[in-house]
Structures are given as structure tokens and as C-alpha cells.
Design brief:
With 135 residues, this protein is mainly α. The protein contains 6 helices and 3 strands; from the N terminus they run αααβββααα. The longest helix is centred in the last third of the chain and has 16 residues.
């Protein structure tokens, strides 16, 4: 009985290639991102910010994991109830807004979910960068 429990515990703690780290897994889960999109979100965040929640780019206009132009999108997210705080550097808040932009802004306009981002999840360079940052 003890051997079986140890095996289950060991298998349950494995991190498989291309799975988000437990931290990113929790961020995506807490932000309400459906699990089937986690790999795409991981890939884009890796390209945009090197998975650094406090990243800042585009002369300070782009903020957080997904390098969202917070002056525009933060207000949109707050006004439309997609986020509850104006903290761009909170990884869950930033991810929640990235999901909302794709789901409630881009897709209803018949655009790709990642239309507002320069990085795209299908790019091999983004996938490679995510792998290099995580493993």
C-alpha cells in the first residue's frame, strides 16, 4: 500500500515538457484562462516579458506579463468589469485582462485572439523562449 501511494505521489509531482510551471499554472487558473489556452498564453507571455510580471516596455507604456498598454486597456478592462484593480504588474490581473482583450474585444470583431499583440503563440521563437525560460 505504501509503495502505491509513493508512486502516485511521485507521478503527480512530475513536470512534463511544455506544461506551465506550477506558478504560471496557478496564474492562468486564477485569471480564468481555460486550460486549453495555457500553452498559447505561456508562449506569448514568454515572448512579451520573459515571464517577468514587473516587465515594462515600449517606453513604459506596455506593462506586465503580457506587455499590455495599460493606459488604454486598463481603463477598458475596469470600465467593462473584466478586472477589479488598476494594478498592471499583478500577474493575475494582467493575465485576466489579456484574456478579456482576446475574448471580449478581438474575437467579437472577427479578429484573432492575439490581434493586439506583436508576439503570436504559433511562432516557434516564442515556444522556444518559453521552453528555455522554464526548463
Amino acid at each position: 500500500m505504501i509503495k502505491i501511494i509513493l508512486i502516485i505521489f511521485a507521478i503527480g509531482n512530475l513536470t512534463l515538457k511544455n506544461e506551465p510551471t506550477p506558478y504560471m499554472h496557478k496564474v492562468f487558473y486564477d485569471a480564468g484562462v481555460p486550460q486549453e489556452l495555457w500553452e498559447d498564453f505561456l508562449s506569448v507571455a514568454a515572448c512579451e516579458s520573459d515571464l517577468q510580471p514587473d516587465a515594462s516596455g515600449d517606453h513604459g507604456l506596455a506593462q506586465g506579463l503580457f506587455q499590455i498598454h495599460w493606459g488604454i486597456w486598463g481603463k477598458w478592462g475596469l470600465d467593462n468589469g473584466h478586472i477589479k484593480s488598476d494594478n498592471a504588474l499583478d500577474p493575475i490581473n494582467n493575465t485576466r485582462l489579456a484574456y478579456a482583450i482576446g475574448e471580449h474585444y478581438s474575437r467579437p470583431r472577427n479578429n484573432d485572439r492575439w490581434n493586439q499583440w506583436s508576439a503570436k503563440p504559433g511562432w516557434q521563437v516564442c515556444k522556444d523562449k518559453a521552453d528555455n525560460l522554464l526548463y
